[in-house]
Design a protein that fits this description.
The structure is a homodimer. The first copy, chain A, is of the alpha/beta class. Helix content of chain A is about 40%, strand content about 15%. In chain A, α2 packs across α3 and α9 packs parallel to α11. Chain A binds a DNA duplex (30 and 30 nucleotides) through α2 and α4.
DNA sequence: AACCGACATCGAATCGATTTGATGCAGAGA
DNA sequence: TCTCTGCATCAAATCGATTCGATGTCGGTT
């Protein structure tokens, strides 16, 4: 009593009212005389009571106000990608004012995860957001379903009972591809996001290209094919990081018959390619054109601006936030697909005349 | 019953045992006959029961398994800094296996925050971590104290009842300063982290230098002073971002009597300075030396390696994780101060001979 | 045969709040 | 004066689990 923190019952006793009345004084849900409320609040202040314990409230209401965000990768890697960060910021900004908190659930260090994440199994959450392109055989997804937690999937494949939020990246890729083709390029190479857990690094064989597991590289490659691009090489990277783009750029630009244009599946990869080109003494875009994906502002490339396809990251976060809200009010929100916009920068131009 | 999810009581009824026995079957805390446990687990599987509801467990135990991390800034800005990310990754990696989740609590968009963050006020958490250098007058800190939530403060000022985790950045700054002085530099400029909520941009006046509110720039400046550096200019930036470093670099290196060395309070700022120097046609380190703080790997500067003072970011996260664990077992963990290590890269050298 | 201890199981209290339905009281209308 | 209405208040049930203390049963010891 003296040692532990005061409870609503203590406050009610001190104010000389019942627990229910004290509850009403805090929640305001129900009729209460102003004088009584004041008395309760005064007693609470005197006891240094900091408001109703959220645990009790949660048990009663069945709501925790927590949105679990499954990163599907280690934070270290995932959060070096501004794409994740900006979306998460948009999400947190939308959710915060609604009283929701974001619980980070990082992926396992071993890939594919051998054991289920204990947090997915046991953490309290009202809604889960898979921000990593979920697939149907995802073990985490199965667990969330069993627990009865509504799921929002970002850029994943369409799944039964899951709210989708996506971007038109296939269309965006096609636009980007058409832009590059329109400049007159014929020898075009592609630097892709990882195909699966293997996260290989190197030029992908036709066999490898036929077994792309993850949705995002598949869609973006398909979009480029739609544009009519027949790449001279498709280079797979282990993650969307500058250094992997650099490695790919060196590999693609060092050999004979180098491509005149390189299209990367992310701006981070593309910026690595630009850096590699510069290191090799190649001018961008005079000697080689480079295009990316996402539409980020990359200060270290300035004054160059990457040609890219912009996705509305903050809006993506906001859309997810609204979907969370809708799920909490018992609605089944519609799947949303956000459009992308071609951004022509300074890193693409006509191919060199030889 | 049929509509809502099954509870432990339903499982117990189906298995023909009491609720307490069913609880024992799941928790394993107490003697139970293997046959009985099997019966309960079978009944649970038949009912599609996914294990005890964490809300109920939490109310009883008073523990939520959630660690609140107060970012103290917008995610967007804060997470563009690899320092925060890597530390957060270390923290999440340590906490995850212990069954703790990380709840992100972003700072308000308006600065200083006019209203209290509702999450600080009401979110469930066992421990709060202030990763942004807390000051004594922090409103969030007061709220957390009132709620009786133990607080861990990273790189903040020493505060009553708060567990400190810090780095020896004052000492590190001194080592870095000695290194630069030892090379023979006399005209040294400093690019600092923001002094307070105002987040000004530009050369700081002596008056301004006397009223630094935030701990980190104050300590790092003090460390450089300890080394015997009397800077020709101290340039304050609004945030630790590449573009702000670039702005500062342009301002400091464009005028007459430019400094021969620039020391920045973060690697991100320092890398901006390097980029600015390159844009101005200055060679690093032949024309100007640049040093940073944190010891990050910045792929876009390669093959250059920034001279810097490394802090053990992953270890910092791990130390915080262990402090959380200690606080949960009722101990009062000792404050920890991690040491830094001078890393001499390729961006510092002797001053140009004129 | 009486007793004791170990062990499995159960009933009931507990955690801290919300919420429903009941109660009491005051003022208005007949 | 009696009743009816409306409002403030309260007692008790509820949310879903954990845990303490009690009960019952069985085997073994003296």
């Amino acid at each position: 009593m003296a040692s532990s923190r005061p409870t609503l019952a203590d406050v009610a006793a001190a104010a000389g009212v019942s627990v229910s009345t004290a509850s009403l004084a805090f929640s305001g849900a129900g009729p209460i005389a102003p004088s009584t409320r004041d008395r309760v609040l005064t007693a609470a202040a005197a006891l240094d009571y900091s408001g109703p314990n959220p645990l009790g409230r949660q048990l009663r209401s069945g709501r925790s106000g927590i949105v679990g965000v499954l990163i599907g990768d280690q934070l270290r890697r995932s959060f070096r990608d501004p794409v994740s960060i900006q979306m998460l910021d948009g999400l947190a900004s939308t959710l915060g004012p609604l009283g929701f908190g974001v619980l980070l659930i990082p992926g396992a260090a071993d890939e594919p995860p051998a054991h289920l994440d204990p947090l997915v199994e046991s953490a309290v959450m009202d809604v889960a957001v898979l921000i990593c392109g979920a697939t149907a055989d995802d073990a985490n997804l199965a667990t969330l379903r069993r627990r009865g937690i509504p799921v929002i999937s970002v850029e994943g494949e369409p799944l039964e009972g899951v709210t989708e939020v996506g971007i038109e990246d296939r269309v965006g890729a096609t636009e980007l591809g058409r832009h590059v083709l329109g400049l007159g390029h014929e020898r075009i190479a592609i630097v892709t996001l990882p195909f699966d857990w293997q996260r290989r690094s190197g030029v992908a064989s036709p066999a490898r290209l036929a077994e792309i597991r993850w949705e995002i590289p598949r869609r973006r490659l398909a979009g480029l094919t739609d544009a009519g691009i027949a790449p001279v090489a498709v280079y797979e990277t282990p993650a969307s990081l500058v250094e992997h783009g650099k490695t790919a750029g060196h590999a693609l630009l060092s050999g004979p018959d180098r491509p005149t244009a390189i299209i990367a599946h992310s701006d981070l990869l593309a910026s690595g390619v630009v850096l590699a080109a510069r290191e090799l003494g190649l001018r961008v875009p005079e000697d080689v054109s480079v295009a990316g994906f996402d539409g980020l502002d990359l200060p270290w490339l300035a004054p160059d601006v990457l040609t890219s396809v912009s996705q509305p990251l903050a809006e993506k976060g906001a859309v997810i936030g609204r979907a969370v809200q809708a799920l909490m009010s018992g609605e089944r929100p519609e799947p949303t697909t956000l459009s992308m916009a071609l951004r022509i920068g300074t890193t693409t131009g006509p191919p060199p005349t030889r």
